[in-house]
Each structure stands twice: as structure tokens, then as C-alpha cells.
Amino acid sequence: MLVLIWLVGGAIGGPYFGKVGEVSTNDQSTFLPASAESTQVQNRTADFLGEDSIPAVVVITGEDGKKLTAAQLEKLADLPDTLAATKGVNGDVSPPIPSDDEEAVQMFVPLDSSGDIDDVVGELRTELKDKIPDGTTAWVTGPAGFSADLVNGFLGIDGTLLLTALIAVFVILIIVYRSPLLPVLVLLSSMFALCVALLVVWWLAKAGVFVLNGQVQGILFILVIGAATDYALLFVARFREAIGSGLNRWNATTTAWKGAFEPILASGGTVIAGLLCLLLSDLATNKALGPIASIGIAFAMLSALTFLPAMLALAGRAAFWPFPPKRDDTSHVVPHDLDAPVKGFWPRSAKLVAKHFRIVWIVTTVVLLAGALGVTQLKADGVATSDLVLGASQARDGQAKLAEHFPGGSGSPAYVIVPQDDVADAVTAIEKISGIEAVAASSKDASSGQATVEVKDGKPVYTAPGPPGQDAPTPTVRDGDVLLVLTLSDTADSDAAKKTIADLRGSLTRELGSGTALVGGTTAVDVDTIATSEHDRELIIPIVLVVILIILMLLLRAIVAPVLLIISTVLSFLTALGVSALVFNHILDFPGADPAVPLYGFVFLVALGVDYNIFLMSRVREESRTHGTRPGILRGLVSTGGVITSAGLVLAATFAALGVIPIMFLAQIAFIVAFGVLVDTFIVRSLLIPALMYDIGRFIWWPNAMSKKHVDEHAVAGGLVLREREDAARAGATEQGVPAPGTGLRRDRRRS
Asked: Are residues 179 and 109 both part of a single domain?
């Protein structure tokens, strides 16, 4: 019945992979809170301009820097009518505006913002290729051009990204299990979880509960595949132990479910708690990622605890064919004699930890701290819109050409909404700011829709652009306000343009008072987005740490161990971020990073890193109750080492798959999380944590009773006794067999 329910859910949810575009948007202005200044301007620009549109800028140049000929200009004069007839163009196309050097022309094409911008821009580019004169080249750039390139960059999410992630996971599972059937069952578990999660997310996005965009969609796919596979690996490890102990498939399933239920539930619950902290964000895209990713994690847990157990119960030992678990397998045996040879990688690791615990945790800490020093070189204060898309971008190339021949801000103006009575003071304040090429006012009386404005004798004077002698236009007034249109000297997404907007806001506040004038436009959206992202980062990161620390304390019923686990996870994150900064700056040559990149990296690495903490420490706690803390640490390391390593490889591979999408943000997240997971898996969880916990001993459980109760730590076989040094010291014991400082465990034969 469980299998049938999941089959139905997968069949219904599967087709929604091709429908995500219906409920997603990549318009950055829609992600800002309503209180943002640029959002307030965005909501009112249609009142002045008469239509809700997004501008595309067409720039056409002669070849090899030659001036445009009269014949070429004559043919270009007919182009606006052709472009205006394109479906999705919302209004009149401006006539060709020649540059001062006569080598280029530009045209402004308003596109319906509610349509498919990428499709319309694609049509414009096709039309231009066929209609421009010989000897000229055309580009479509501006806000619409960049939006189209960004949408095209996300096109591979449904196919390329998912296929890459699944292939990577399948290869790893084949190597881990050496079985053709088990990897298929695990991947089916992951895919069904993703299908059902996507079905729920799609309907919630359609209902307007949250904003869905390309980067959130890509992260959802990767997170569900990675997390569901991790949880499946934990269950399979327990099932393999049970089958290897001689239980039949039904009893083995029950035993495995009881052993895996608590750590899977705790791990998933911790990740969900960390993700839901993103609801505190002011950015809609961050706020949406919290519940969307949490839905995915919830179905990943549910699939690992229902569908996979049902399939393994049906398959039994055949799931591991042709290498079923053997009852005499000794790869999980904890080494009790430090001088005796041991079999298996993880028993050798445990032997290393027991014999040299203090050296191990000190050396690994120093290595991690060295990597963390690179954080000082991280440039996470925002990147230009033109740098978001990796690889070819016609909008980026067109913007470069536009900046060669026209003011950099052409086609992406800044808007200022100011009371009509304060226009003169506003223009005076604007003129004090360098970086502004021209000031105009929105006007229906002017053929271009704009009237040049300047101040004479303390009053605003409006003139029509073009030949002199035309009637003086009047500005459009809405609710007592006027819309001023500013052309910036620098490209709209440059640091210089952002500084101009910041200076402009400061000047208007000083001249008119706070809140009198509102500054918006493309550059203002970038400025507000960066400021909001930085605020979110400073607010959410401490809250995530506190929430996860509390959950770990409740789960482990202790204080010391959770604090150490959180510190190690933060150190692992800083190392990943530091190394990533060096790679971004000196190898990949990225110009910087979005402020949200460290936040996303932190949430994923800390929340998912805690997964491995829980896998390890829940087993350590279980073993410590019977064998004592130090033997429990070694037993927990050996028992979970294989599954944690496999899970880490899977998660790193799935996040690395994000790199196939040519979007800088996703490429950076891919490297940070993939590298961080590997560091967490092979260094922190395998060496640092076990060695540090082993050194501290039973005090890690303080104030739990386990930190106070003396436990004789006897070996199960071989007549060997394991005992913690500080336990013996507190008891005043000096008997033979107690480990000397720094030697870990020793052998002591007991009389039979």
C-alpha cells in the first residue's frame, strides 16, 4: 500500500517539472519588501508613464568603429514600426537616437512586464538580425535584455541539472553498495520525494503564498535529492546490519526502522528549523526558500521512512546482490588493542583517534583555522547584473557597446518621485550630485514622454527635447507628485552608479527632509537588494545558531557536546568560505559575490552539517550507555563512518551539480556547499569531533547523569578492558590497564 501511494504521488507530481515556469519569476524588484524605497517607486511608475512595462534597449553600431552612413540611418528609421509590431511590445518604440560620435544609434522598446520577457526579447533579436542594414550589428540589452539572459540561464534546471545530479548520485551509490538494485531503490525514494514536494510547492506558489524563482527551484531539486539520499543511506546502513545479524527481511525492516527513525527525524527536523529561520528575511526570495526547502526536506524524510522501508522489506537480502552482508563481517569491530593490526578503514581511524587523540584534534583545528583565514578576502557586497550570467550574454555585450557611445545609464534611468511644489529644490539637490547626465520630468505633452527640467529664479522650467520653438510641456502630476527621470553617467549596475544613487538619496534628504522624495529604478533596486541581504545575513545567522544549539541540547540531553558540535560546524563553514574566497578571486576570477551567498552557504552547511552530527552523536550516545563514553565514541565512529562518508559524497556531488547552471550565484553556492560538506565529512566528523570528544571524555554529557556515573568500560570479547583515564583518576584507581596520558587504550588481561 505504501509503495502504491508513492507511485500515485510520483505520477501526479512528475508532470509539474515542465510547468514550474508558470508560477516562477526572476524579476529582482518583486523580491524586495513593500517598505523598500525602490519598491514604493516601482508601484507608482505606471501612474506616470501610463503603462506597466520593462524597457529593452536596442543598440546598433557600424562595423569596425565606422560611422553609420546616411543610407544605413535611412533604413534604420523604418525599424521602430517593425519592432512595435512584435507581440509583447507594449507601446511606441522610440526613433533611432544617434550617438555624438555618429557610430551608433539606440532605441527604447517598452515590453509588457506581465508577458514572457525572454520570448519577446528573443523575437526582437531575430527581427533585428533580418532587418538591420548590411554592415551593422545589433544588440538587445537594458533591463529586459538582462532579464531574458537570466531566464535562459535557468533553462537547464528541469533537465540538465536534475540529470547531472542523478547520474552523480547513481555512480556514487554503485561504488558504495556494489549492487545494481539498491541504488535504483534509493534514487526512486529521492525522486518520489521530489515529485510530491514539487506538486505541493507548485500549488502554493500559484496561490501566491510565496515567490518562486529559478535559484530557489534549483536549490529545491538539489536539496531534496541530496537529503533524501542521505536519509536513505542511514536507513540502508541499519537494514544491512540487521540483515547481517541473521534477521529475516520483515524483522530486519522493523529493527532498522526503529534504529533510523529518531536520527532521521531529528536530522530532518533540525534542517527544517534552520531553513525556517529564513522566514525572518526581508527578501521575498530568501523568505520563500525557507518553507519551500522545508517542504522538500519533510517529504525526503517521509520517503526514507515509508517508501524505502517498504521496498527493502519486499526485496530483502536481494537488494544487496551480488554482495549481501555477511554474518562474520568484522569491518565494524572497534580496536581494543592499539598494538594489534585491525581490519577496515574505520577501525583504523578509530585506532588513530584513540592513540593520538590530542594531536589529531589540535592538528585538524589548526588546518581548519588556516583555511578560514581566506574569509578576509571574500567580496560579498554585491555584483553587477551583467556579471550574474556566466558565459555568453548578448545583454552584457550590448551594454558594453552602449557605454562606448552613450551615457552609461541610457535605457535604465533612475526615477525620483517628488511633490510638485518641491521640484525646484529636488532638481537643485540633484544637480549637486556627480554621475547624473540629464534630468527630465515625465510629461504626456512631450512627444518623447519626457520634458527637460531646469531651475531658473527658484522655479522649475520645462522644455521639450528637440528643435527649439516647441510649446512648453507640463509635467504629469499624480496625487500631487511629479516623476523625475534621471540618466546616469555610468552603467546602471556599476558600483559608480550605486554610489550615485546613495549620494542622491542623501542629498534629497538634506534638501527636502526624510521621506519627501523617493528614489527608484534599476540601480536603486540593486542598492536596496544589497542592503536588505546584508541585514538578513546579520540577523539570521545568529538565530540559526541558537535554534540548532537548542535542538541539539534537547536531543543529546547535554550542554557541552552540543556547544562543541556547533563550534566545530561554524569552524567548518568558515574554512569552506575562506577557501572558496581564494578560489573565486584567484582561480575562477569572479568579480565578487552576492551578500546572500554567505547566508545560503551558512544555512545549508550548518543545517546539513548538523545532520552528520546527529548521525554520529546519536549512535555515540547509544553505545556510551552500555560501554562508556570513550569506547562509545569509537564504536559510534566505526558504525557511522561509512554512512556519513557516503552521505557526504552524495550531498557534495548533488550540490556540485548546481555548477552546470550558468548563473554565478548558483555556481558559488555549489562550490561552497560541496567543498564544505567534504571538509565536514572527512575532517570534522571523522577526526576532529571524535578526537576532541575522546579527550574530554564523559564530561561531554554534562549536566546529564552520564557525565557523573562511573562506567566500567569492558570489551565485549577477548578479555580486554577499556576504561577512561579520568574515571579511574576520580576513583583513585591506579590499576594496571588504565591508559597513560596521551596513549588512549591499553590491554589488560583479566582472570577468567
From this structure: no
- Write out residues in the chain with pLDDT < 50, as ranges: 330-331, 711-752
Greatest CA span in the chain, whole angstroms? 116
**Residues 660, 162 contacting (CB under 8 angstroms):** no
Q: Does residue 41 lie in a domain region? A: yes
pLDDT value of residue 337:
58
Question: How many CA atoms does the CB half-sphere of 38 hold within 13 Å?
Answer: 24
Q: List 670's β-bridge partners, or say none.
A: none
Report pLDDT for 725.
40
pLDDT for the residue numbered 334? 58
Claim to verify: residue 460 and residue 420 sit in the same structural domain:
yes
Residue with cell 541504488: 183
Given this model, what pLDDT does residue 563 score?
A: 92
Q: Which of 527, 550, 577 is the last residue of a domain?
A: 527
Residue type, 449: G
How far is it, in rounded angstroms, from Cα 283 to Cα 288? 9
Q: Report how far residue 649's alpha carbon sits from residue 171's, in angstroms, rounded to the nearest whole number.
A: 11
Nearest to 491 by CA among 149, 54, 142: 142
- pLDDT of 176-235, one tens digit each? 888 889 999 999 999 999 999 999 998 988 888 887 877 788 888 888 998 899 899 889
Cα 737 from Cα 251, distance rounded (Å) = 40
What are residue 658's phi and psi, to 5 degrees?
-60, -20
- Of 318, 320, 312, 183, nearest in space to 254 by CA: 312
DSSP state of 587: T
Given this model, what pLDDT does residue 470 score?
66
Structural domain boundaries enclosing 224 = 1-26+154-330
Give the CATH number for residue 41: 3.30.70.1320
Question: Quick check: 632 and 716 in contact, CB under 8 A?
Answer: no
Are 134 and 273 members of one domain?
A: no
d(CA 297, CA 432): 53
Same domain, 160 and 12: yes
DSSP letter string over 686-742? IIIHHHHHHHHGGGGGTTSGGGTS---EE-SSTT-EE--HHHHHHTT---TTPPPTT
The tally of domains found in the chain comes to: 3
Q: Are 102 and 67 in contact (CB under 8 A)?
A: yes
Whether 521 maps to a domain, the answer reads yes
Q: How far apart are CA 228 and CA 191, in angstroms?
A: 9
The grid coordinates listed for 137 are 550589428
